[in-house]
Amino acid sequence: MTTQPTAMELLSQLAAAPGVGDLLPGATIPPAYHGDWMTQAPAGTALALARPRDTAEVSATLAACHRLRVPVVPQGGRTGLAGGATPVSGCVLLSLERMNRIEAVDAAGSTITVQAGATLQSVQEAARDAGLFFPLDLGARGSCHVGGNLSTNAGGNRVLRYGMARDLVLGLEAVTADGTVLSHLNTVLKDNTGFDMKQLFVGTEGTMGVIARAVLRLHPQPRSTQTALCALPDYASVLRLLRLVREGIGPTLSAFELMWPDFYGLVTTRVAGLEPPLAHGAGAYVLVESLGVEPDEDAARFERVLAMAMENGVVGDAVIAQSGGETAKLWKVRDASGELRSIFWPHVGFDVGIPTRSLGEFIEELTARLQQRWPQVRTVFFGHVGDSNVHIGVKVGDGEQPEAEIDDTVYRTVGDWRGSISAEHGIGLLKRAHLHHSRSPQELALLRTLKTALDPHGILNPGKVVPA
Ligand code: FAD
């Protein structure tokens, strides 16, 4: 008869394994590591915290955990919104925080090579210091890691122009569950050497391997920014404005962010110091931004397009930022989504993808379904509408939310619209049970096959993403 090793025995065997750096035992792990931004995701008690300094230590830690069948939960900056970095019972938390070096910037090739624990902001700054631009940007920039951005395939504010994290990576060094290092730090734009292995690790939230280093794509630094907030009568006008700006300012269009009146009204009345730049009462508010390299021409073109939109009645009113300070003020309205925890809490949040053409109808239908079930329901809708991505907050009263029922109503509606249950935040722990609304049984079967091939003992981030 074999007996299971105790936690203490496992811990000492792990600590004694060659190449594993120092481990912090479970009871001494600081509370910050006990979960990600989604604190309501149920957390297990971790066995230990590992903070490797290089790829070799990541590999040694994974090899030891693989041999001892100890689950491993990779952690970046723990700003994820799907519970992906939440500890599972008896796991080793593998934090990449010590692997935060910017290794090289290649200005001629427009690439930057970094360790996975570098914060997004440090990568943006290193690119800027070299006269270049790393366009991925999101509110958590100061805390989130490049490894976390890639593992969640983060989107953010400039997807319309530069794509998601997936589109900004050229090469990866990743470590699979048994400690095998797959190093393909490719720096060339065109690399058609067969199967693009890095995609196994992008967007799979630490279930297929641990990203240790990455080569990222840089872009020219923009020299002009035009930003405007527009008030529109309805969603049909939003679609017309999107078409007008796409045709009028072409590839410089970098953001097209929609705020429904419920969101705009809430944040501009409840967030301290936030004045409404445009009057309440419109059917929709859109923040448009263009990033260009010809300041005079860019500004004239931008103003021409908006003037045309106003003449056509597509836009009812608009304000164009005249300075960096005014630009920041307009973005503050959209970024006030970060304040919803204090002004619209508790609520159940969603991040869904719906084809842009039918997003308006989707919102109407979803609102009707929610109101039918909970007449007192309150909602907020806002998002990256140019990327077919809307964020939703649903609040039923001030007490505990009927989360399972709200999830069911929203995800069923998303399924009926053939949308995506996660446009950018990922599946993690919180959306795993709903993945079937967006993925077919055949796709889920392939996902399980790939997972088993890469991680036969299922140690990597168990219980996340891949449905049971
Ligand atoms: P963590 O939260 O630590 O981890 C996220 C997932 O990745 C987990 O499953 C974890 O196991 C895995 N992981 C982390 N590092 C690695 C690694 N090196 N190798 C393998 N797996 C790893 N997201 C958007 O897409 N767009 C937004 O606009 C946006 N805005 C945000 C604004 C705020 C204020 C906050 C708090 C979050 C926002 N997010 C947004 C969520 C977004 O997913 C994260 O901020 C970020 O991409 C996660 O990075 P992280 O380092 O914090 O990862």
Structural domains: how many: 4
What is the name of the CATH class of the largest domain?
Alpha Beta
Estimate the mean pLDDT confidence. Answer: 95
As laid out across the biggest beta sheet, the strand order is 15-12-14-13-17-18-16
Judging from the principal axes of the Cα atoms, what is the shape? Answer: globular
**Structural class of the secondary elements?**
alpha+beta
Work out the strand percent: 15-25%
Give the low-confidence spans.
Answer: none
CATH A-level architecture of the largest domain: 2-Layer Sandwich
The helix content, as a percent range, equals 25-40%
Task: Describe the model.
The protein is an alpha+beta fold and 468 residues long. The chain folds into 4 domains: 7-95, Uridine Diphospho-n-acetylenolpyruvylglucosamine Reductase, domain 2 (2-Layer Sandwich), CATH 3.30.43.10; 102-220, Uridine Diphospho-n-acetylenolpyruvylglucosamine Reductase, domain 3, CATH 3.30.465; 224-338, Alpha-Beta Plaits (2-Layer Sandwich); 346-426, Alpha-Beta Plaits (2-Layer Sandwich), CATH 3.30.70.2740. The mean pLDDT is 95. The chain has a 7-stranded antiparallel sheet with strand order 15-12-14-13-17-18-16, sandwiched between helices. Strands 5-6-10-8-9 form a 5-stranded antiparallel sheet. It has a 4-stranded mixed sheet with strand order 1-2-4-3, with helices on one face. Helix 6 packs antiparallel against helix 8 (295-311). The protein contains 13 helices and 18 strands. The structure holds flavin-adenine dinucleotide.
Compact description:
31% of the residues lie in helices and 20% in strands.
